[in-house]
């Protein structure tokens, strides 16, 4: 069993209280790690270490020197690729090919991409006229915001954490990370990488624990934290926003979604089925950008439902290291209970269960894991809880529609606004619908195709602010204007 401690000022430290909590494998529910729970003293020490680094060696580096270190971090992650794959698989139980092809390489890329961004993005300058005719010159400089509190979820832990760390560090900030209590492994491993590469002590700190009355709340309430970046549930975002209002700290929020997939009858049918299958069931449906509401134009509705059903019934359950496995468990028993409660609610609300709706028959010790079946419903009104609320599981409700206007209204009838995926071969319509769906990210004939330089974030209750490319600089730096009278 792994022992995971907090990482403060370049050292692994157990909490003075001696408090530890367990991490169980999603695959078979065995205990796989014991984690030290940071209390207020450890959070305070981490924030102090981050502050000291800001005013120490790290703060004195040139942009080029910082960028070189971040390239080194990316390369060291790649060198220790198997360790990261193994750590992430242990935490999430997801198939190794997803770790190998998406989550870990993208984690390394997050350091390189933002190192390039800070090197190459200019700041603005304005010349202005003055009454004496000599004029003045304004130019902007960007400075790091300071100590950034980074609060992470469990669904793609390494990718989502590095998505924040890459730009935060590239911009010259220091960080205190609070990984999800469900997925502490890769954040701990990254401490070894930072030390191996020579990132100064205190630049990267990790405090483990939970949310309320634990490390998450202690960190977000800490007056030494200058800004908070958070990915997680909308409800948690509201609690963090209250904490951030003390001291007027800035926030960047990537929150929940109840995303619509829209399939027109003229779509490339097989590509649309594949796309919606991925968007509903990848990572066992635990993707914020995932599709839990699918709207299919009536002429192809029945055929589409049957095709998606066949694919959902063909998933291969298995341990992450089993190369034949295409589908993993949910993150935890607690989340399994939540998802199954929605499966029961769908039936109570009168859904037709096209496929799934329960727990698969798993062999041996896997029977103890957090497995649930991929599930498809039809026949529910838009007012049903499973059509309105984010479930964050491998499930979707499919409804027919008859017109473009109707489907745009259906897609927009939600408090969330993260992403949508639109399938059609009519280009004019694709652009038209994309402009009218109230979300931060729209994919046409694709899903989860990410260029890290583009804006990422949600509308409505799905988030505050945008990250990605230059947009990340807006959050992770302060822009100062200097006005020179000529
Ligand atoms: P969560 O909100 O339960 O927890 C996220 C993190 O916040 C954890 O580290 C948790 O310990 C911490 N936390 C909880 N309460 C806190 C508090 N009061 N103060 C400070 N920290 C607190 O979310 P989760 O279950 O880990 O992740 C799933 C959610 O994340 C889903 O809603 C999903 O849509 C969302 N998500 C959004 C995006 C996006 O980019 N928009 C990406 C991934 C996940």
Automatic annotation (TrEMBL):
<dbReference type="InterPro" id="IPR029510">
    <property type="entry name" value="Ald_DH_CS_GLU"/>
</dbReference>
<feature type="active site">
    <location>
        <position position="254"/>
    </location>
</feature>
<dbReference type="InterPro" id="IPR015590">
    <property type="entry name" value="Aldehyde_DH_dom"/>
</dbReference>
<keyword id="KW-0560">Oxidoreductase</keyword>
<feature type="domain" description="Aldehyde dehydrogenase">
    <location>
        <begin position="15"/>
        <end position="482"/>
    </location>
</feature>
<dbReference type="Pfam" id="PF00171">
    <property type="entry name" value="Aldedh"/>
</dbReference>
<comment type="similarity">
    <text>Belongs to the aldehyde dehydrogenase family.</text>
</comment>
<keyword id="KW-0520">NAD</keyword>
<dbReference type="InterPro" id="IPR017628">
    <property type="entry name" value="OHmuconic_semiald_DH"/>
</dbReference>
<protein>
    <submittedName>
        <fullName>2-hydroxymuconate semialdehyde dehydrogenase</fullName>
    </submittedName>
</protein>
<dbReference type="InterPro" id="IPR016160">
    <property type="entry name" value="Ald_DH_CS_CYS"/>
</dbReference>
<dbReference type="InterPro" id="IPR016163">
    <property type="entry name" value="Ald_DH_C"/>
</dbReference>
<dbReference type="InterPro" id="IPR016161">
    <property type="entry name" value="Ald_DH/histidinol_DH"/>
</dbReference>
<dbReference type="InterPro" id="IPR016162">
    <property type="entry name" value="Ald_DH_N"/>
</dbReference>
<dbReference type="GO" id="GO:0016620">
    <property type="term" value="F:oxidoreductase activity, acting on the aldehyde or oxo group of donors, NAD or NADP as acceptor"/>
</dbReference>
């Amino acid at each position: 069993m792994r022992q995971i401690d907090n990482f403060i000022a370049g050292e692994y430290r157990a909490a003075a209280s001696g408090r530890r909590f367990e991490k169980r494998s999603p695959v078979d529910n065995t205990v796989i790690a014991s984690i030290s729970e940071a209390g207020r003293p450890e959070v305070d020490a981490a924030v102090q270490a981050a502050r000291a680094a800001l005013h120490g060696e790290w703060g004195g580096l040139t942009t080029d020197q910082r960028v070189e270190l971040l390239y080194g971090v990316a390369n060291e992650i790649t060198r220790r690729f198997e360790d990261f794959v193994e750590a992430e698989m242990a935490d999430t139980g997801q198939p190794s090919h997803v770790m190998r092809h998406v989550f870990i390489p993208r984690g390394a890329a997050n350091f390189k991409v933002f190192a390039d961004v800070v090197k190459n993005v200019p700041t603005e300058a304005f010349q202005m006229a003055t009454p004496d005719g000599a004029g003045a010159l304004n130019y902007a400089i960007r400075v790091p915001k300071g100590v950034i509190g980074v609060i992470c979820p469990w669904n793609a832990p390494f990718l989502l954490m590095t998505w924040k760390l890459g730009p935060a560090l590239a911009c010259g900030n220091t960080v205190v990370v609070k990984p999800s209590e469900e997925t502490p492994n890769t954040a701990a491993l990254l401490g070894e990488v930072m030390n191996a590469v020579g990132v100064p002590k205190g630049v990267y700190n990790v405090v483990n624990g939970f949310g309320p009355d634990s490390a998450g709340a202690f960190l977000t309430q800490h007056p030494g934290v200058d800004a908070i970046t958070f990915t997680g549930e909308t409800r948690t975002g509201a609690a963090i926003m209250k904490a951030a209002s003390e001291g007027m700290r800035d926030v960047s929020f990537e929150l929940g979604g109840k995303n619509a997939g829209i399939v027109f009858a003229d779509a490339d049918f097989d590509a649309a089925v594949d796309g919606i299958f991925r968007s509903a069931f990848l990572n066992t449906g635990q993707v914020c950008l995932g599709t839990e509401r699918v709207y299919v134009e009536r002429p192809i509705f029945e055929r589409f439902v049957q095709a998606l059903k066949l694919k959902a019934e063909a998933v291969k359950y298995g341990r992450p290291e089993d190369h034949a496995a295409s589908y993993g468990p949910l993150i935890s028993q607690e989340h399994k209970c939540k998802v199954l409660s929605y499966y029961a609610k769908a039936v109570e609300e009168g859904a037709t269960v096209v496929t799934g709706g329960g727990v698969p028959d798993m062999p041996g010790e896997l029977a103890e894991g957090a497995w649930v079946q991929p599930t498809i419903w039809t026949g529910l009104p838009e007012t049903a809880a499973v059509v309105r609320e984010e479930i964050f599981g491998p499930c979707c409700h499919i409804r027919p529609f008859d017109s473009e206007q109707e489907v745009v209204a259906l897609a927009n009838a939600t408090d969330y606004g993260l992403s949508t995926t639109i399938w059609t071969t009519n280009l004019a319509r694709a652009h038209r619908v994309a402009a009218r769906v109230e979300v931060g990210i729209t994919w046409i004939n694709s899903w989860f195709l990410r260029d890290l330089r583009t804006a990422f974030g949600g509308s409505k209750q799905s988030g505050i602010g945008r990250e990605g490319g230059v947009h990340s600089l807006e959050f992770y730096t302060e822009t100062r204007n200097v006005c020179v009278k000529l």
